[in-house]
Amino acid sequence: MVRLGLSIALAFALAASTRAEWSVTSSQxxxxxxxxxxxxxxxxxxxxxxxxxxxxxxxxxxxxxxVRVIDNPAGEDLAGVxxxxxxxAGVNGGYFDPADAPVGLLISDGKIIAPLRKAKLLSGxxxxxxxxxxxxxxxxxxxxxxxxxxxxxGPFLVDRAQPVPGLNDIRGARRTFILTDGSDRAALGFCSExxxxxxxxxxxxxxxxxNFKVQRALNLDGGSSSAFWFAGERGPFSISExxxxxxxxxxxxx
Length: 254
What we know:
Elements: H1 2-19, E1 23-31, E2 38-46, E3 51-61, E4 65-71, H2 78-84, E5 89-92, E6 106-108, E7 111-114, E8 124-129, E9 132-137, E10 149-153, E11 156-159, E12 162-163, E13 173-180, E14 185-194, H3 196-203, E15 216-219, E16 228-232, E17 235-239, E18 247-253
Antiparallel strand pairs: 1-2, 2-3, 3-14, 4-18, 5-16, 5-18, 6-7, 6-10, 8-9, 8-10, 11-12, 11-15, 13-14, 13-15, 16-17
């Protein structure tokens, strides 16, 4: 009877865990400085766990904008670089070592600055080639794609519209990421403190934006590196990084 009672309790706990979902509680939208560009601030909650998270997402169409990876060896701040380079939106980029050297593939303006690396954490590559913005598993990437911009980072958060299983669910931090919808739209984003597992579930939540279903999402360097900037019609919106970073991912006009 003890074993049966324990089995029933575990079944109920598993069912409750399965039911626990994030849902959108509020959202605000601001149009950007280019057609098809918008900034959405989305507040989500997981009522079962008593958790809340806020996303700032810059959504754009590949018909009018694309992505540029900007190398930042001088250690400038995101807001300053975005305004100087006349960008539409941007976030911090990939990982770097204590000597400020990029970790993983980095291609900026067609120039290879750092090579592809094999590492469990570096599970995905952002690639801009032939006018398309795509996210690939590292094993899917090929130099034959002739990328004009590329950034290796990770882990993958969402794949085939589903949260990636097995992500860390212990350490919460500020996060930045890039999303694609499998069509002609993509987004850069910032999340208030969340674990990687939570972020995967959050980004797979329906209703983040109208007619935008996240097919793939890749985590960028988080924590104190996280930053977000958007050129809104009422002026710039900015969340500053807490330390300098090696590179940025920016949305720029085509």
